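Reminder to self: tokens first, then the designed residues, so the page reads top to bottom the way the pipeline ran.
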């Protein structure tokens, strides 16, 4: 199957670099009025971390997908209190998070970092809300479902107030690997990631743009968010490294995949690398199965897999790229080939928008699942103990 290539004109790059990808105004302008599509019940929603990269995308998606909102609160740190954001044509204030903010809230979409979630998610649940958390704070907690709707939607129903959204690199890899794993259990996964700057938040993306400009002007690049200049450079993921030499991001891919697949023994190794791409992560994934898995069969399976779009034009050497994955819901998968070094090996390459499917979209899809399951207003009693 082939995909239409994007024409890489100079204005394409200019727009990519100069536009603010977290500005929701244009997207919202094109969305229909919520009233036209409102489901029978509407919900009181709070976005914690509304001013961040994931927060902005959450607002975009809530509008795009016509999530049934009765009331929307925008929460951030005291730094942003007093700012305003536009949603559905309405100007809304950004409020500093405090306990009172969660009163009369059904759903909290949290994307303000692990330490913030650890403090406020239990408070929100005690106040009666269900929290869908983008941080790593609760992902491996045994009582917290870790959900990718294309893979384990049933897990969401067992929530006790908090549902965790997996790590971005993990979601993208899992969406591509799980359909194959269902056909034939995968025995071992070897992954290498090529992670964009925006994976570290809105300020990291601005830092790489500033570094790029500085270098092009012959000046020294300044690194504040990242430990080293990322422009015209790359480095292994800058999270703490354990005694075995694996960084936190790599161990998230290992442990979270095992939890999502329900396969605690699955052998996985990953190398995570930051690359000077603004948005969308890419990954090389090498899979080992019990018996040979043909590339044409894998292509057929992935061609029908939910959340996957095949991008494979071998003659044109056209495969998934971050600039074509940016802003898209699907994980782009291609370059599917037998691994010539192993009879049961299969390799694929993917790019996916880690702010969208790797974070905000996955969270909104979980919220939609809860609406469909009528499980959005049952957080209160259950939350005790989780995250405390
Ligand atoms: P970001 O752009 O840096 O935004 C962080 C948000 O959290 C901002 O709204 C910030 O508000 C808010 N915040 C920070 N400290 C706070 C505090 N003490 N109290 C209340 N709000 C606070 O980061 P991001 O990239 O959106 O990431 C947010 C979360 O999503 C993180 O846990 C991250 O690991 C996770 N995540 C990110 C991605 C990604 O691709 N970026 C993907 C998957 C998961 P102020 O504006 O007031 O500082």
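Designed residues (388 positions):
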């Amino acid at each position: 199957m082939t995909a239409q290539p994007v024409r890489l004109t100079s204005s394409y790059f200019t727009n990519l670099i100069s536009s603010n990808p977290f500005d929701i105004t244009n997207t919202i302008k094109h969305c229909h009025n919520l009233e036209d599509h409102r489901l029978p019940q509407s919900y009181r929603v709070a976005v914690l971390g509304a001013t961040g990269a994931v927060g902005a995308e959450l607002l975009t998606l809530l509008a795009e997908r016509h999530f049934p909102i009765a009331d929307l609160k925008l929460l951030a740190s005291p730094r942003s209190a007093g700012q305003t954001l536009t949603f559905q044509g309405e100007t809304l204030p950004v409020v500093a998070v405090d306990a009172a903010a969660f009163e009369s809230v059904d759903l909290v979409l949290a994307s303000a970092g692990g330490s913030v979630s650890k403090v406020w998610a239990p408070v929100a649940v005690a106040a009666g809300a269900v929290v869908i958390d983008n941080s790593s704070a609760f992902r491996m907690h045994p009582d917290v479902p870790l959900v990718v709707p294309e893979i384990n939607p049933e897990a969401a129903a067992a929530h006790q107030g908090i549902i965790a959204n997996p790590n971005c690199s993990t979601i993208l890899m899992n969406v591509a690997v799980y359909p194959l794993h269902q056909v034939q259990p995968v025995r071992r996964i070897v992954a290498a990631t090529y992670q964009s700057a925006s994976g570290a938040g809105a300020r990291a993306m601005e830092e790489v743009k500033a570094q790029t400009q500085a270098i092009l002007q012959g000046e020294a690049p300044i690194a504040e968010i990242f430990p080293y200049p990322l422009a015209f450079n790359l480095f292994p993921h800058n999270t703490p490294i354990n005694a075995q030499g694996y960084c936190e991001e790599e161990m998230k891919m290992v442990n979270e995949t095992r939890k999502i697949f329900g396969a605690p023994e699955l052998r996985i190794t990953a190398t995570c690398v930051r690359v000077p791409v603004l948005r969308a992560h890419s990954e090389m994934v090498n899979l080992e199965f019990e018996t040979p898995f043909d590339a044409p069969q894998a292509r057929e399976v992935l061609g029908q897999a939910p959340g996957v779009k095949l991008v494979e034009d071998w003659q044109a050497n056209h495969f998934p790229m971050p600039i074509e994955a940016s802003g898209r819901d699907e994980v782009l998968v291609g370059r599917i080939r037998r691994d010539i070094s192993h009879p049961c090996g299969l390799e694929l390459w993917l790019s996916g928008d880690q702010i969208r499917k790797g974070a905000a979209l996955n969270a909104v899809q979980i919220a939609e699942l809860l609406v469909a399951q009528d499980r959005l207003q049952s957080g209160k009693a259950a939350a005790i103990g989780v995250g405390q």
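Residues 49-55, 76-77, 79-80, 97, 111-114, 116, 134-135, 168, 198-199, 201-203, 354-355, 358-359 surround NAP (CB under 6 Å).
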